[in-house]
Amino acid sequence: MEFLIQFKLNDHLYLRDPELSDIGRSIVRESINLIYEIGFEKFTFRKLALHIKTTETTIYRYFSSKHKLLIYILSWYWNYLELVCKFQLQRESDSKNKLKLILEIVTYNYPYGLEIKGYNMQRLHEIVISESSKSYLVKDVDDINEELVFSPLKSLCSFISEVILEINPKFDYPKSLASTLIETAHQQQFFSAHLPSLTDNKNKELHKEYVLAYLNSLAFSVIK
Amino acid sequence: MEFLIQFKLNDHLYLRDPELSDIGRSIVRESINLIYEIGFEKFTFRKLALHIKTTETTIYRYFSSKHKLLIYILSWYWNYLELVCKFQLQRESDSKNKLKLILEIVTYNYPYGLEIKGYNMQRLHEIVISESSKSYLVKDVDDINEELVFSPLKSLCSFISEVILEINPKFDYPKSLASTLIETAHQQQFFSAHLPSLTDNKNKELHKEYVLAYLNSLAFSVIK
DNA sequence: TTCTTTTTGATAGTAACACTATCATTTTTA
DNA sequence: TAAAAATGATAGTGTTACTATCAAAAAGAA
């Protein structure tokens, strides 16, 4: 599957395409490790430059800001996830089973490659849980949305909504349910791990398993 | 109802209680206006100080950081919301109607006072939509959670979960559903306004009305 | 190979941010 | 009216988020 992973990401996300050089790829790879380690707020280009033994200047030649870099990473993730969904769904003809598979993929409750293109996928998923909403919860969301930087997320959401409509063509909220399922998958994992009293997970571990069960219960009773 | 609004907020949120002085109250009041206007990222104590004609020093004597100030404001909001819920639910004995009322209150689709204690409630609600997740999506969430700064949100969530259990005592996920409903109420309003293709709202306005209808559909089919 | 272009590095600089410290002044309260 | 508390004024520190400039290195073309 590895060989498939080559997306053309939106031009507005970078100044120089990081896929096309070693240093560019290491910027993306190590920013995943560093954001995972210290969180997006404390993450700076200065720290990243020290980490990969280059300079701030060079990083700024690839990304105009750390916010754009975050959106880049997340876009890559959404593209990747949609690809995994489509790949896995080929084998399945039953719509309900399709959605079950999607929910597993979205909660990241599956044992695929730990590394893809040198990106640590566990860490990337943790970043998605903790930082993804920061990509759009900004004052200039409308401006950057015009640059189509959120289209990978929209595309994934649209794909999921179609599966929902396969199950029940009369369902009124396929897209809202799709976005709710994606976001709830992350949010409830975060709550289960850090604010467990906002969930019903008795277990102090097995966050993904709990969330997956919850999402299935949610999705299938709503769509009916 | 005005006279009821007096909460004792968690000591850890402030250095000096802002409720006890004019300058403290204006810090809270004007931070709502300023965060609403420029967003939490661009909001600084320096700008706030200029805005209310005081000094950074003075603001730092009330709040140790802008992040704590955000949690303070949000805690106040959660307390307020739980109070409104309890007040409104007195009149209602049917559990399903109770939940309907809660969903209206949580989406803020009701015409209560525009100002309470000088706080602009419309703006406060917009802040909750755009900024509330930033209060907990931080690396030191576990540390600050130990200071119990998130208890107002937990309390509201717990309250809602009890109403859910009234409707169906056998429902397995009352707390997760409660937190999902609260968070989805905000998230879908944001999506409807800024990333509408993540929702099914055809209308370019009436975000609250759309979200409320969606939440009702969601909640009652899940609880069954 | 040499020449040219592209990429990177090194260094410097700016305005703003997130604080902390000190001390004088004003306001409140006992 | 004296003591205590709150505020203001000013300064300073280390960091962040960039931008600018110019030299050095690497890559590609002739």
From TrEMBL, chains A, B:
It holds the Pfam family TetR_N. Residues 44-63 bind DNA. Keywords: DNA-binding. The keyword DNA-binding applies. Residues 21-81 form the HTH tetR-type domain. InterPro entries: Homeodomain-like_sf, HTH_TetR. This is TetR/AcrR family transcriptional regulator. The lineage of its organism: Bacteria, Pseudomonadati, Bacteroidota, Sphingobacteriia, Sphingobacteriales.
